[in-house]
Amino acid sequence: MFIGEYNHGLDAKNRMIIPSKLREELGNKFILTKGLDGCLYAYPLNEWEILEEKLKSLPLTNKDARAFVRFFFSGATEIELDKQGRGLIPQNLLEYAKIEKEIVSIGVLTRVEIWSKDKWNEYNYENIDYDSLAEKMSDLGI
Hints:
The protein is α+β, with helices and mostly antiparallel strands and 142 residues long. Helices cover 41% and strands 27% of the residues. It has helices spanning 20-26, 45-56, 63-74, 91-97, 117-126, 130-139; strands at 5-9, 15-17, 29-34, 40-44, 77-80, 86-88, 102-108, 111-116.
């Protein structure tokens, strides 16, 4: 299970160092793709396979399902870390997530979300009413 928040940055070659606590579970090879809310999602290979099976089962006749699968898989790439724990983030994913230098990686149960620091701060501190969110979660039994 992924937990925690980690601040770090890109080097001059667009490589990011995966924090060691996340790297242990993510592995030396993982899938990186466009995520929701303007971040990137990193999945260990075993979690990606589970998600892949679920998405394969979506009906091809459903327009929204096709659009979601296209969105998710068109940005997906396998990342292999070097001996220093660095992985190259493709330019198209950097542009999608508006990552320029500073990064925040957060553990979210089965995946790691990778955010531009500015975008994370905007999302986390300016856009969420946590009291209202807590009320909605109680409706879901949490």
